[in-house]
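Hi there. Long-time user, first ticket. I'm pasting a complex I've been working with (about 380 residues overall). I'd like to know whether the download I got is complete or cut off, because the file seemed smaller than I expected. Thanks.
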Amino acid sequence: MSIKVIHGKKEHTVDDDSTTVEGVLDRIGVNPETVIVEMEDEIVSLGKAVVDGDKLNLINVVSGG
Amino acid sequence: MRDKDNITERQGNKCWKCGDPAVIHRKYEGKSWCSEHFTEQFESLVKGTIRENDLFESDDKVCVALSGGMDSSALLFFLSDLFKDWRNADLFALAIDEGIEDYRDESIEIAEELCRDLGVDLHIASFKEAFGKTLDEIMEDKEYGCTYCGVLRRWLLNRKSRELGATKLATGHNMDDELQSIFMNYLRGNMNRMVRLGAKPAVLDNEKFIPRVKPFRDTPEREIALYGRLRGIDLHQTECPYVDNSLRFDVRDFLNDMEAKRPSTKYTSLRAFDKLLPALQNMFSGDDSSVKECDFCGEITSGDICKTCQLREKI
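Hi, the file is complete. Here it is re-exported in full:
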């Protein structure tokens, strides 16, 4: 299964058997406390199931000054 | 029901109230929320903070310190809606333009657009006008921009909001900011500075000091961003080029790691601090008679010369 993740200027492709958004974040080392996740322009919860070909957009929420 | 639906429902992907797709699963309370019910509950929680701490009076003139970032933008959005029903109260926004190229100009634009949309008056005060230099100019021969920026910004927010007639200065400080300050003060041994924390810090009863209030103080940063996003507020994501908060960032990352591993860490830590705060206030709150006026600018200070005027000497 292949999931594409856009995180700011970074782009990841996750090839494993993660079944949820939270699993994908864990796979790329992103703390779920620090992002909001969109899938097809809709905000989704961390428990949302992912399937092959899904594309996630991560929006940083922690302040940086 | 297909297997996929079974999995998502088991993992909390449906709103516990209506069954619609969830936008958030709060591990600390074990519930998922759809956009409509999350927004409703978020606003109810913030109203609870306002009520429990008596943050506003019905005839207050409230100045929102607006940076154009998500926290202060969401706060202005929320308060502009709340204050529609408060006939005698007034609300306006104040943005500080420190003069940081490719950073502050973008967030000021967002602030201007938001205020236009909400019909809220926006005032802009600049470092250049108040101190004769932009932060970029100040930092040409210095390090640690946050030291200068933080002190000068607080001074300008207080003076300008007072000149504009504000009775309260509302800031977008959130639960994460508050916890970071608690842990940083503890790590540095600055117990006396902790009395400045809380939704309505008991700092000074002086006509020159505009009381600060923090309606989002009990709300996690991530949920404010989610609320703002759901309300259609633009998110300013550029990082300040002078940011140098290494201890704050270490504490921030520690708390986020702990929350991810042990949900509810942030809530329980904040509640524990709230139980300590009255004791700290008893121990460290100073006598207001020790407050003086700065020899140079006339603003309140504990010494003869305020911190802002001390820094002005160096810029």
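A couple of notes from our side: The interface with chain A takes residues 4, 7-8, 11-13, 21-25, 32, 35, 69-71, 146, 176-177, 221-222, 224-226, 229-230, 235, 237, 239-240, 242-243, 245, 252-253, 256-257, 259-260 of chain B (CB under 8 Å). The two ends of chain B are 68 Å apart (CA to CA).
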